[in-house]
Batch of 4 targets.
Target 1
Amino acid sequence: MANHVNLVKLCVGVDSVEDLAAHIKHRGGRTTAHVTRMWPKQEDALLNGGSLYWVIKGVIQARQRIVSLEEYRGGDGVRRCAIMLDADLVRTTGAQRRPFQGWRYLKPEDAPNDLPKGRESEAELPADLAQTLADIGLL
């Protein structure tokens, strides 16, 4: 059993994995930061191999490995958490998620699998089949 935990977060303002990849590339460097108001209580487990899974248009589609958590203070002086992420974006199998605010913990056994290298996406399921699978909790 894995002894790490992941985070899952809505990727607001992004329409596709390609958009997210372009945003990461634009920022340059080997790490990117996502600043959040709350500091994760399970810091040690996150830093023991955890990733941030991105929900794009209602579906987890990609993840980035969490490198570190760093203190960040904006112009207002409020302490925030900068989740430092590896710039490599790993595509995952799709997993539907309902909207939520902030981030949530995601157990490794509940995380979607990575897609094989070089595979851009999964084949689309027919909409009615995808909805039925989602309704019974299988997608």
Note: The mean pLDDT is 88.
Target 2
Amino acid sequence: MGVIKVENIRIYANHGCLTEETKIGSDYRVDLVIKANLQTSAVSDNLVDTVDYVFLNRIVREEMKKPSYLLETVAKRILVRILNENNAIKKATLSVSKLNPPIGGDVEMVTIKMTEKRKK
């Protein structure tokens, strides 16, 4: 097993329960950690034998474009899609952070973190 991390993906999106949040939008940070067998690609030096991080970034960006009330919903969509579209991934952990959330105080970010494992 090995780990691939795609960290600090910066995205502007329109998530939130408040009308203003969905109209104006906010800055988000997404961090993704996947576990997969990287032994074959370590020997073959071939992209088809690993999990392409360009693929991971693309899915995160596409799913973040779809407005949702909750970050949990967005995270679940991303995780399910990643596992469905790449059989090499055994486990994925995703953190979605809303930067400078409108919660009535000086808060840098709020983060939700979820993990999905491939069903055996």
Note: Helices lie at 19-24, 39-44, 53-64, 71-85.
Target 3
Amino acid sequence: MAATLYVCQTCRAAAGDAPGSDAGDAVRPGARLVAALLSAPAPEGVDIRPVECLSACSQGCSVALSAPGKWSYVYGRLSEADAAAILEGAARYAASADGLVPWRERPEIFRKQSLARIPPQE
């Protein structure tokens, strides 16, 4: 079964920005991240799904990875510049048996910007 990469499209500020520093009606950083991810081919076994909120607002743009029977992850402090690394990490996650990609095989942003790891839901 495919892994799902959930991408918050409503993230307003990049990590480190002051609250309220977004430009009102301008395209939100989360929407730009979604566009960057959808403009590239999705890795085999990965379904990219924009969502309204991952509730990690203080952590900049965020994504989550999950699949049946696998550990799930939430990553933050991301931007559209990270799209290639996110897709690489999602591909490695999808190819894993249990969602536990060896630390050294993860893209750097997945090693350093993990916000949560959630046990498989049985």
Note: The longest strand covers residues 72-78.
Target 4
Amino acid sequence: MTEKEKMIAGLPYRPGDPELVADRVRAQRLMREYNQTIVTEDDLRSPILDQLIGSKGAGCALRAPIYVDYGYNIHLGQDVFMNYNCVLLDICPITIGDRTAIGPMCQILAADHPRAQEDRAAMLEFGKPVTIGADVWMGGGAIILPGVTIGDGAIVGAGAIVTRDVAPGQTVVGNPARPI
């Protein structure tokens, strides 16, 4: 397997691999282009997002700036709204369902690091996919950790740190996020 294939599969990989470095440079160039646009410049924004994001449904609105690792592992349903300053570390797939609204400064983190010191010293990284269902609302500053699935219709309170799966229709708040 290539380092890229390992990364996407959630296996330990080496982020310094030349192919991955080139992919991150590409994403940074596209982010810079997108982040210099304003909301009324859809004729400029949409083609940039089509190059940056793995897939997106109709009606998606992503407020600039946005930040990604690679972009191609991000898959958005229809009418997804993402407010200013969101970070999506997409070393593994990040999937967001239709009509989900994500507040400003949210972080969706598929990237992780080994717990064993010797693996960190070997410069290995890994990740776990993140799945967010349809009709989810994430308040500003929420953080979603690697491997989390958030069910359809759930609410994640502002500033919550989501460390485990959230059931459909459930509301979670706090650090770590817990149902209310």
Note: The chain is about 25% helix and 25% strand.
